[in-house]
Prior knowledge:
196 residues, mainly alpha, 61% helix, globular
Amino acid sequence: MKKIIFMFAIAATTLASCNSTGNKSTGTPNESNGTQASSPTDNAKTTSGVKNTSATKKIISQYLHIKDALANDNGKDAASAAKAFDEATGTVDISSFNADQKKTWVDISADAKEMAEHIGANPGKLEHQREHFLMLSKDIYDLVKAFGSEQVLYKIFDSMANDGKGAFWLSETKEIKNPYMGKAMSGSGTIQEEIK
Ligand SMILES: [Cu+2]
């Protein structure tokens, strides 16, 4: 019972911080995430040579569900996929990770989990979900770079997304269905990288 109360407290805090930073949320989290995002990738690339694709498989598949839901302007489906994503982060078995992978996992998963919680808690706010999806995409990119991916993924960039600042997402297909623009500008974006 104590645990349940504690979890509610965390959920409440998350929601409160989400609402209170409503105006700032485009600027501040993006910047802080940007600086975090580059270093784990570089570390992982140079130090953790071993691939571990099975560990991150479930997470990537839920990420792709969120992506599809946002491309279809479906905030409800995005929220339920984000909840599944959040649950999947808790089931990852880190016992086979080497020290560098463990560190990378701890750094990335905590941030990714937070982004997923915000997406899950805001089914009626597509734009807000998209702001968090942008940061989640950076996390997943870093994750895939560090642990590999069982399926080929494409990094797709759209210069118009994120209020013209540009944003990328990861996709399992070359077909461009923009999760930031939704149906209004579905085909906007170019493939930047193929990740195997
Ligand atoms: Cu939020």
